[in-house]
Structures are given as C-alpha cells and as structure tokens.
Amino acid sequence: MVKNKNIGGRANRSSTCKTKKSGSQIESSKDPTPVDDPAGSDAASVSPEPQTTGQGQLGFPDRIYLLASVIFQNNHLEKSAAQRLVNYGNERGLSLPKVKDEEMQRAAFELAFNTLKYQELLEDIMIDSGFYLTQPLPDDQMSLVGVMLYDFQDRKFLPRERQGDEEIIREVRDAENHLLRFKTKLAASLARCRIKHDLLSIECILPESVKTMQERSISLPLYAWINMLKSSLDEVLSVLKSAGFSQVKSIGQLEGQTFCQDPHCGDILVFPAQLKAQLYSTKLLSDHKLIIQDKSCSLGPNAVCSLLPEEGGVLMVGCFSGLTVSHTASLIAEKHKAKGNNQPTLYVCVSDRTDAQREELQQAVTAMGCKNVKLIPEDFQSLDGSDKRLQKVHVILLTPKCSVSAVSNPVEFILQENGDTDLLQDLSKGSIAQSKLEALVAQQRKDIDHALKFPKVLAVVYSTCSSYPEENAEVVSRALEQANAHSEQEGEQPKQASFRLSPSPFSIPDHAEGPEETDPFFMLEPSEESNGCFLAVLNREPEPVVKEAPHEVLDRANAKGILDRIGSNHQLTRKDQHGHTIRMTKTTHARTSQPNLSVSIQSKNQETKGSNSTTLCGHHEFTNRRQSTQGKAKAVRLRASKNTESSSFSSSKLENSTSKKSITPVFNVTTSTTTLTPAPPPSTPLTPVVRPRRVPQEVLKPVVLVLPPVHFPSFFPPQNNRTGFTPSFNYNKWRSPTQTVPLSRSSGSLSKDAMVKPRPLF
C-alpha cells in the first residue's frame, strides 16, 4: 500500500530533522541520495536499499499515476504570474478516471496529496535541473510529471518495475521516459536544495503542523465497531480469542496480537495498525460483524442512541458514509429490540449525493443488515416540522462538512467518509484558507439553526473533526443565542422553544486526560492514539410547570361550565351570561312548578271544605284524616325550611297564628296557603356558595303546612265551680287518638309553638 511505503520511509528520516547537520555530515546510509553529485554523474552508482509498494514492486501502475495527476491538477496551489515557476495549464475540475478497486484509488490520492506537500520543492528541482525548459512536454502534462517526479525521488531514482499484463497509458510512459533521461540532473538538483536549506531529509521542509500530523498517522491504531445486527460483543470476543488475540486493559498496552475495549464506547474494539490482515483471516470483517472505522465517526451514533426516547426516530444530516449510517441504525435498532419495541426509523438526507453515491450507500446499509433506514432526497433546508415523514423524529445527528483539521490521516478519512477532496491542498500546507473556513462556518451555522427549528426534536447532536473553535464551540454558542432570542421576539415562553447544552454523554473513568463531566463539550485532541473530534449535545428545555392559584383553577373550570360559576367573582362575558341564564331558568322552572300545582290543589280543597264545614261533628272523621296528612306535610316542611331563612320565618309565623285560632272549628286555608307560596326567583343571580366538591342536586318540593285544630269533647264533666272546669281537668286525656303533635328536630320534645294552653271562657 502506497501509504505505508511513503510514510514509512519519511518517518525514519523525519525523526532526524530536530538535529541539523552540514552537508558533509549527512550519512549516505540514512539517505542514499547523493548530496553533491555533479550534473553528469550517474546516480545509479549508489546502491540504495530498494523500497517496494504494497503491490510488491517499485512504482505504481499507469492508471494510478494518471488518476493522481488529475487530483493534483484540480487541487494544486496556483501562483501569480510573477511568482509562477511551472505552468500546469488552466484546466481544473477534471473528472477522475476510474480505477479497479478502492486500494488503487487510495494509493492515487495519497500520491497526489504528497505531491501537494512538496509542490514548491519539486518545482525548484524541475527549474534547477533544466527539465522544465528543455523537455518538449505541454503544460497540461506537468501535473503528471510532478506526481511521477515525487515517486521517482522517493524510490531513489530507481526505474519502475512493470508487469506484463499491466495497462499501458502512452502519456504516462512518455513522461516517465523524459524523467529517466534526466534522472542524474534531477538527483543533483535535489542534493543542492538539501544543502542549501540544510535538510537532513525532505520532510524537514514541511511545516511543523504537517510533520506532526504525518508522524501521528503512522501509529494510529485500528478502531472497529461491532455490528449488533449480525453479532454480539461476546461472540466477537470469543472469535478473537480463539484466533490468538489477547485482550488488554488500555490502548497504551497494545502490542503484538492484542486488542482492548474503547474507554468511551463499549461497542468499539481497538487493535494495532499492523493487525489488519489477521483480522481479515477471522472473517469478522468479511461477514460484516466487525467494521473498521475511525473513532471520531462512532461517537455521534453512540450519543444519539443514549438520547433517543423509547418512541422516536432519528434524522441524519451532513457529511458521512454508509458505515456511519449503518452504525447509527444498528445501535438504535438493537436498543429498542432489547425493550421489545419497534425499530425506530433512521432518515438520511442525501440531497448532495449523486445517484451512484446513493446506490452505494443503500448497498452498504443492506449489507450490514439494517432495515430501518429511509433516504430523503430533499435538501435539509427545505424540510420542516410539518413534514409527515418527520413527525416522530426526536433526535437530529448533524455532522456537517468541516475542515478535517483534527485528523492525522486526512486522505483515508476523506475517502472513507465521503469528505471534501477540495480540502487536500489546504491540509497539505497545514492550515485552511480563511475564505474556505468562512464558507464552512456559514454552512454549519445554517444547518444547526435549521435543526433547532423542528418543534418535536428533543435533542441535536453536533459533531465535527475540526480543531478550529470557529467550527465548534463558537458555532454552537451563536446558534443557541439566536434560537433563544428568536423565541423571545415571537412572544413565546422562552423555555418552551429554547435549547441548552447538556453535559458530555461520554466519560473516561480513572483517566486523568479525560474530559470533566461538567464540560458541556466533548473534545478529543489529535494524538498518536486517535484523531481529534468535537461533539456537543443540545437538549430542548422542558416545558415549565405552571402552578395556578386556587381562584385561577376555579375560573378555568367555570369557563368550561364544570362548577357552575362556583367561586367566580369576575364579571361574566356575554356568552357566559347567556349560558348561565339558561341554566338558572331551567332550575327556577323546576323549583316553581310543584308549588303552583300545590296551590291549585289547595284551592280546590278550600272550596270543598268551605261548602261542608257547617257541620263539624258530621265530618269529624274525614277532617281528622285530612289533618293527619297535613300534619305529616308539616314535618316535611319543617325539614325543608332549613334551606332558606324566609321559609323558616313563614313557617314559624304560621304556627303561631294557628295556635291562637285553635278553638275555631274552621281554618282560613286560603290565607295560610297564600302565605306559604314561594317568592319568585331574584332578578339577578345570587352569589353561589363555595362547596368543597360537587354533590348531586335535588329539587325540593314546597309543601303547604297546616297545623291541626284542637277539638273539645261534646260534653263536659259536671261543673264544680263557677268557671265550669274541673280543677283537675287534664287536656291530654281528652286528645283525639289520631292527632299528632310535631316534635322539635333538636330534642324530640314537644314543640313550644305546638303547645295549646287552655284559656278561661269567662
């Protein structure tokens, strides 16, 4: 593999860049390139140790050189006419030639990326050696010359080994023949350049940030996540141990055929970089049970899985590969499968993908066994909360295009994660152009602002692989401020539409370098153990609990007609007054219908009684029965008189008047009945009395109360004195057996008003 060849050779020499030596002190054993070889000398006289590529030969096939030249042509640094040494033509944005497999594509991108790093050095060599001015090659082929010259010096100007069945591309062979004829002068120019700049190796000419990134990429371990839809942690561990792998506790202990579990994500295993071939022999990779992917791409899916509620979907937006989609889908499917729920749907925005890229993504998802993924072809900015497909989406995973400045192996990362290849030229120089950085930040702000507008989204996970604060904390902070300010301007309650930063969902127990639990952002600095990344979780604020006062609860209940205006002191609206009037009219009608019927019956009884009252003794039995009934009615009336003060007052007055006229054989029934007629309902509703709870209401029926008369016997005992009464006369002895005297409700004794005191006749 070209990366191992180029980087491995540079790593051995780049370690000597810290100690500078003069040209005479450079040992040929470390770098066999002659430092002061004259232009006409033969560079082949030096016998360097040959270095082979991943294909087991020196150099690459013609197709890789051609593809690398197109990549370099599209991304090389353009200089002004006054500073330009080599002209590469005006064509940019060329379509990439097709290659056989991904390995060849990666080799071509690595070759182009390395040529971008040393563009100025290679141009100096071409000018100093006279190659550019003397060789009859058109300007549009100078990109091909550049990538072949870098590979030529990297293999110590040794000729390329060719295979018999290799594809022949004429323009590649022509450029190679010109370079071979000038190899001595080219080697001499490189030696003079190193002497001039006092370089132990050509890596020393690179910026410090690029050299550091290059050194870290050599020792980066392999990260692989377990596909829970096809396997489990126990099964993978069993297969690895049976294949001779042994598990250690930390990444620092990785040595030989060992592995460990990632301290942040439990479904990720870490291996030394050189064990990729051994992993393929276990068939875990070919069976899609173990997926090799950078750790920075796995943190977002794990954060989403921890935030997703029991019922809800996920929306993915930004720059990602089919592996990231499959990882997210498998995690949320496994989580809800364990709970017995249906698999949540993972919606993926693919508006920026070509048809071929969409088909490739769908194939990757299908191969992983994911059945809960749906692609959305619309642009993310055109989607909103009213979309029927997104009604159950509660979490958004946003991985926007970023500068990839925290990644030590940018070529491999960009190719695997469908990144922006236009960043290769900036990454080769160790910094991103300000114009490109501003364009990236503007798009990131646009995406996160739109993500916070979905009303049913409970959390937004924002993740980048950038080391610039402009793309990380500043973007998130400004988006939160704008979202909260917008909710306040609309007059809404700020907490109902606002988001807040949540603590990091990841923590490293017993690890001094781990982030604090209270840190709202999760950041990994690039190191020899992993690439750098940034992650933030924005949670929607829960709706505030409003505590209502008692009178507010009553007002709200009265507005719905539940409590019939109990406890309401506010003026009724016209609509409420109309409804309340109707209810009062019905109640009044129910209360007055029965008294009117009683008055009518009593009037008829009065006429009958008036015509037959002349002979009291003849109708004594009929009168007693009628009075007994009326006595019972009086007892009912006395119980009902407790409800209103006016009824009690009328009953008391009637009893007193009846007692005074008890010796009269005939009662004035008309007068007493008219007195007991209920008064008409008030014109305005009375203020209701507050009751602790609603009880069934019963309409009471007014009853006419008539006290029974007192009858004396038809004959008197012999008179012993002048008054005609016997001194020992006992009134109770002569009381009719059918007469009843009402009892007092409180004590059960005789009512004071019902007691009849005899008065002297004379």
UniProtKB/TrEMBL annotation:
Biased composition (Polar residues): 12-27, 495-505, 590-616, 738-750
Protein known as: NOP2/Sun RNA methyltransferase family member 7
Residues at the catalytic site: C465
An MF annotation (GO) of this entry: methyltransferase activity
Similarity comment: family membership: Belongs to the class I-like SAM-binding methyltransferase superfamily. RsmB/NOP family.
Residue numbers binding S-adenosyl-L-methionine: D352, D379
Xref: PANTHER family: METHYLTRANSFERASE NSUN7-RELATED
Bias-annotated ranges (Low complexity): 641-660
Origin: domain of life: Eukaryota
Region described as Disordered: spans on this chain: 1-58, 482-514, 585-660, 738-762
Record's keyword terms, sorted: Methyltransferase, RNA-binding, S-adenosyl-L-methionine, Transferase
